[in-house]
Amino acid sequence: MIYLDNSATTPIDPEVSKAMWPYLTEEYGNPSSKYYTLAENAKKAVEEARTHVASLLFCEPDEIIFTSCATESNNFVLKGVAHFYKDKGKHIITSKIEHKSVLETCKFLEGEGFEVTYLDVDSFGQVQLETLKKALREDTILVSIMWGNNETGTLNDIPALSQYVKSHYPNAFFHTDATQVVGKIEVDLSKTPVDFLSLSAHKLYGPKGIGACFIRKRELGLRTKITPLLHGGSQENGYRSGTLSVHNIVGLGKAAELAKLNYKEQHQKLMELETYLVNKLKDLFPAIQFNGHPIDKIPGVLNFTIPNVSNELIIRSLKDQFAISTGSACSINEPSYVLKEMGLNAIQIRSSFRVSLNKYISQEDIDRFCICLDHAVKSLSI
Q1: Dist. CA 47–CA 63, nearest whole Å
Q2: Which residues are known catalytic residues?
Q3: Would you say 341 and 96 are in contact if contact means Cβ atoms under 8 Å apart?
């Protein structure tokens, strides 16, 4: 099978699985235990991984907190800020095209008495600064806007949006779900003043079941206070209780190390493959419409509409040869609310596809996909 659904998950890099293996076999110590070698080895491995993640994000290692995934990180930040700072305000801002883990958490908080403003996006799926400006209030305690969209690949200008918030509303926190962009574009937290950032390992060739949350330290190195999602021991500086998943943390660390080491090469390859695929699709389907921003986007992520076809029928006909999708893996059997908010109608949405590439894909793979897609479209056109 040719795997073209890398926004859902990526394959594990062989170097990552190799690095993880000893911590599933010989090095099984609990890093929270003391003194003996197995525990110290585990603790050292965790801190080395933390350093690699921090290096990728241009932040300090002790600003990285390990979680189970970006969904947990998103829940942790939104609920944690809301609960800890509710006496300072109950207004939260997000966008209408966030990942379900943000939108559903916001709905949950609305049930607890918080007021949430859901920002509109433009036809490219971007949140404009003027839109955000109009929504900000003195009682706003948190703004949460994704860095890159999981369905279209469109990027928000998080450096500019967060800079405005922190400059004009210093008491409001800024969170970004960067799950889709980490390792694919440069994320420099030394220049981007977000307070919180979420990520998952399995979107950058690491294992499933491990993620991280960046929590920026305050002045004088003081830790930002936030109510934990999980209570228990004092792991992760009291932010996230529970025995650390050492093998998964090692996998995330190795994936982050490789992402930084090979960033330019992989970025260039994905850009070239994307251009190649776009040109092939345009030749085959003159009426094709590409959804999302043509430039401000994640390399290798394409969302397109082919008129008069059913995406479900096409995907099912190709399922034994190719992995592609209609959109987010977290919106099973639901029409894309992202494309709807961008202005597409129901017919267009049912004719839309998401293809997302990885570093192992070749031009020959793309050629084969285009030939089979063309055949399927001609056979199954409405």
Answers
A1: 12
A2: 330
A3: yes
pLDDT digits (tens, 9 = 90+) for 251-289: 999 999 999 999 999 999 999 999 999 999 999 999 999
Q: How far apart are CA 235 and CA 232, in angstroms?
A: 8
The residue ranges of the chain whose pLDDT is under 70 are 328-333, 382
Residue 99 in contact with residue 150, Cβ under 8 Å? yes
The pLDDT assigned to 382 comes to 65
Residue 121 · residue 342 · CB < 8 Å: yes
Please give the CATH number for the structural domain made up of 14-261. 3.40.640.10
b/e per residue, 127-140, with b = 16+ CB within 10 A? bbeebbeebbeeeb
**Chain-centre distance of CA 20, in angstroms?**
22
Architecture (CATH level 2) of domain 2-9+263-380: Alpha-Beta Complex (3.90)
- 172 CA to centre of own chain: 22
Burial 157-195 (b: 16+ CB within 10 A, else e): bbeebbbbbbeebeebbbbbbbbbbbbbbbbebeebbbb
pTM: 0.96
Is residue 381 classed as helix, strand or coil in its secondary structure?
Answer: coil
The neighbour count for residue 228, using CB atoms within 10 Å, is 17
Domain-by-domain residue ranges, the chain? 2-9+263-380, 14-261
